[in-house]
Amino acid sequence: MTKLIHEIKDDASFIKSHSLQPKWYKFLKIFILLGFLVGYGLLCGFKRVAVFLAVFIFLSFLVHLLYRGKTHKWKKSWLDFVVVEEGGETKATSIGMFYYTAVIFNASVALAISQAVP
Fold first, then answer.
1. What's the pTM value of the predicted model, to 2 decimals?
2. Is 14 in contact with 74 (CB distance < 8 Å)?
3. Among candidates 116, 118, 111, which has minimal Cα distance to 37?
4. pLDDT digits over 85-118, tens only?
5. Which of 117, 70, 113 is CA-nearest to residue 95?
């Protein structure tokens, strides 16, 4: 269990410190997601929001694990995830189309599944 907690702390540290997205966007996307969820809930019901959120988080977790594994914990370039070495330290510099396509795909699948809920 302590290994799992350590791995979660490593990932949280990377997420807080990376510069793959501007800081203002990291902050803004929280409000974009909350606005979408509230609007979707008012339009279609909060039961569907719960299903959407569960499916989206699960699929996003799978994408996270894929990137984490293929990049050797954010230390190796893979697909659109680019890592460079600066001053003896590895630093992620960009992420691109594959990642954002996966996020859009996850949202589309989650939306379709949530709409299938009676």
1. 0.89
2. yes
3. 111
4. 888 888 888 888 999 999 999 999 999 999 999 9
5. 70
